[in-house]
Amino acid sequence: MAITNGTNSVNGETHHSKLPADFVWGYATASYQIEGAHDEDGRLPSIWDTFSKTPGKVEDGTNGDVACDSYHRTHEDIAILKQYGAKLYRFSLSWPRIIPLGGRNDPVNQKGIDFYSRFIDDLLAAGIEPFVTLYHWDLPDELFKRYGGPLNKDEFVADYANFARIAFENFGPKVKHWVTFNEPWCSSVLGFNIGKHAPGRTSDRKKNPVGDGTTEPWIVGHTLLVAHGTAVDIYRREFKAAQGGEIGITLNGDWAEPWDPEDPADIEACTRKLEFAISWFADPIYHGKYPDSMVKQLGDRLPPLNSDEVALIKGSNDFYGMNHYCANYIRHREGEADPDDTAGNLDHLFEDKFGNSIGPETNCEWLRPHPLGFRKLLKWLSDRYGYPKIYVTENGTSIKGENDLSLDELLNDEFRAQYYRDYVGAMADASAIDGVNVKKYMAWSLMDNFEWSEGYQSRFGVTYVDYKDNQKRIPKKSALVIGELFNKYISKE
Ligand code: PNW
After folding, report:
1. Which element (helix H / strand E) includes 257?
2. Is 409 inside any structural domain?
3. Domain-located, residue 255
4. What's the predicted TM-score (pTM) here?
């Protein structure tokens, strides 16, 4: 049977893999990337406000002060979601809007609560289910200044637990899907080793005066795991029975192919790459321990999980939240790992030994589409974690040079449309052929937005945002294509 992304040719006839009839899809965004209104109605700075205003940290020197202005345009955003046929919207709460200083003894900002309450009501009135991320990287700056944010486990966990409880109390009657943390790998590694994300700590003194990339990412990862487990525990003990929702964490993870498919060391390095990127968090959650490969390489730099922590963390996912974008070729490195290494002593490459490219270039240096990798990773996760219910919480692409195109060209985003055809097809195959239990899908992103250290140059939206003309929103071709795709793939019976 020849298989190419959702279309299977059997005895000369073409069949489409189907997604289950109860499959739900929609779009994703995050507060700092879209809201703007950075100093309105009591909001105080997050670490991303501070980081993006530090010269040299964001490529085009921009920040999220205005972004897509979604704080003032919730009606417009809901109208486009509805127009696109989305039934699900993943967005994140801005912690510094809700508790401007962040801490458990700091005041709660009623205006922040009211803003999200109204937004959730309006989404539901439009027939769109809210899928809420508690933490998508915009830590109140004060908490970082006060005690180092996630570098201080006890303080951070207590403050995060308080924030989570406030969110469950206020929004839980209407929100049935919660994500505790978005991509803890990014918070830990990009924020505390590479220094590419806020708060920008790293061992590299050319980039930042302080930071220790050999220890801090592992401390932060530990903190985030414990904070996740604590929030889930609070939800299950205090809210779940009455509110009936579900909660999980969202992990990023891209697929790995061996640089030399004949070299057992490269094949092994692929597993190690997935373990360092994904199983660092997923193994404690599903198996109650860190992967052996990480313990072996990192020794006591990987803070052990004590038995109370294991009890909190093990079994703490009601669903597996999966963010997925691309794949790499992986080549093992010889010798001892560098103390600063976070990847598992291996290289990420775009070409294999024979010069084959993993996929076409995009506007992001780290992202090259490779749709079959999506199917393979869905299967890999399912095998390793016992066929959990998977929600794809992000998937999407930027386009090389998109920002420099004319408006007509930009709206005709065939590269992105093809990305979604291939990726949604690969997911349908994983579901129909491999038995993967994937139930929801949210494309990244509803609209172009602040792409972190890449600023506004890399666009991920299915909606064009004109930053020069009052953040005007115009649908791109891909928005139409996604609707048609799910219409085709989701079973009608
Ligand atoms: C994810 N990397 O971030 C985030 O969840 C989104 O907020 C973001 O806009 C989206 O993917 C697109 O980038 C990532 O450098 C950012 O490997 C950077 C990386 C990975 C994920």
Report:
1. strand 255-258
2. yes
3. yes
4. 0.97
